[in-house]
Design a protein that fits this description.
- It is built from twelve helices and 14 strands.
- The protein starts with a helix and ends with a strand.
- Helix content is 32%, strand content 16%.
- Helix 8 links the parallel strand 5 and strand 6.
Length: 422
């Protein structure tokens, strides 16, 4: 094998390995929707099996949440989707793994939803001291992962907490992202909970990558959170996970700048967008920002938003994951049947406005098809042959093909070589 050919092969292998990316969604309600009778179709109205269809569209990873005891959640919280106990998660995870997807497990460490506004300690743990909670979170995490291992659904990625920008297990684990904590809370307590959860993950699932998940309600606080966390050397993780919803968190420039800062300050960490979404008919409930003049609330507007977001993400070499939140939501054959509307099956609290299937028809939105471009679509370098390296086309490092030479700054592949465009 001559030196030039060897160099080409090595370049291809390097790009393929560095470009391992994951695209999918949090489909935690899919099992319930199918049980309720939901029917899913492609964009042309042809019936599909959801997991098979996602796979055909280039998706390769799925996220599932887990609550400690969701039977203790309120009725409305359960209607919103806080229903995932261990039995449910095992059953759904088996389907996900059988379909060939990587699995991300999202521990909420609560009986109900956790987000920047609430991180209630599970009712069964509510009388425990901080030291007892450290032991409990280790034991609980270890037990859950043991059950998943025995069921043959070992997670590939594990989130130790959901949107924990302001801590978890309140009040003791309540913190401020920029440092300090409200009365009763402590960074030492919070970091101790994380360290013990991660310890259990490493013991039970040593190959799994650990995700620390924050969100963007105060973008400047996101890097500060991870800077604070760096003070605790026993909190070892692999991936920075972010929630980003433009209706609540702002323009693309906000997430773009946050990603740039995180890549600069935490170059050893991969970054995943573990939750995102944009509407196709209405804005998200409680929206603070409005981008409908640029991205109309239509199928095409949602697709265009998705395409532009992916273009930004693909300019950040550390970003290797993109997950749409609640893509499976549809009321086709549940509320809307044969042209009629019947809400007697009252298992959902209302509309989720950023689904990737239409709530009435069950037809896939075109944004769903757009998602594969995050991993390169059909031009994924990991799937190319050596012949690709002799053509004159231009490709991003993750394999996305350009119609002409890119004019944006970055590193690209052309004729089998990495080329810097300044």
């Amino acid at each position: 094998m001559n030196k030039i050919f060897t160099l080409i092969i090595m370049t291809a292998m390097t790009v393929s390995l560095s470009a391992q990316k994951y695209v999918g969604g949090d489909i935690s309600m899919l099992k319930k929707f199918l049980e309720e009778g939901a029917v899913y179709n492609d964009k042309d109205g042809n019936p599909v099996q959801p997991l098979v269809f996602f796979k055909e569209q280039g998706w390769n990873a799925m996220r599932v949440r887990l609550f400690v005891d969701p039977s203790k959640a309120t009725e409305n919280e359960r209607k919103e989707g806080a229903i995932q106990d261990m039995d449910y998660v095992i059953a759904l995870s088996k389907d996900i793994k059988a379909a060939g997807f990587k699995l991300m497990l999202d521990f909420h460490y609560s009986d109900t939803w956790t987000d920047p506004g609430k991180h209630s300690t599970p009712s069964a743990w509510s009388s425990m001291t901080a030291d007892q909670l450290k032991t409990q979170i280790y034991d609980y995490t270890k037990d859950c992962l043991d059950k998943l291992n025995k069921a043959g659904v070992t997670p590939d990625f594990i989130q130790t907490g959901n949107e924990i920008t302001v801590g978890m297990l309140w009040p003791t684990g309540h913190v401020y992202a920029s440092g300090g904590a409200p009365s009763g809370g402590s960074w030492d307590y919070f970091a101790g909970y994380l360290a013990n959860a991660i310890k259990a993950c490493n013991e039970m699932c040593p190959q799994a990558q650990i995700v620390i998940h924050t969100e963007m309600h105060a973008p400047n606080d996101v890097p500060k959170f991870y800077q604070q966390l760096a003070n605790y050397t026993d909190v070892k993780y692999d991936i920075i996970g972010l929630s980003y919803y433009p209706d609540w968190h702002g323009a693309f420039s906000v997430i773009d700048q946050t990603l740039t800062t995180l890549e600069s300050q935490f170059a050893d960490k991969k970054i995943m967008i573990v939750e995102t979404g944009y509407g196709f008919e209405w804005q998200l409930k409680g929206a603070t920002y409005n981008f409908t003049s640029i991205y109309p609330l239509t199928d095409e507007g949602q697709r265009k938003w998705t395409a532009d977001f992916i273009e930004i993400l693909n300019q950040h070499s550390n970003v290797n994951g993109l997950f749409w939140w609640y893509p499976e939501y549809t009321l086709n054959n549940i509320v809307f049947k044969g042209g009629s509307e019947d809400w007697s099956k009252d298992f959902t609290a209302g509309y989720w406005n950023a689904s990737l299937f239409h709530y009435k028809t069950g037809n896939a939105h075109t944004a769903l098809y757009e998602m594969k471009n995050f991993v390169g679509g059909s031009a994924d370098i990991s799937n190319t042959t050596v012949n690709r390296w002799t053509d004159d086309n231009w490709y991003s490092l993750n394999g996305r093909k350009y119609m002409e030479k890119p004019n944006k700054k970055g590193i690209y592949i052309n004729n089998g070589r990495k080329v810097i465009v300044k």
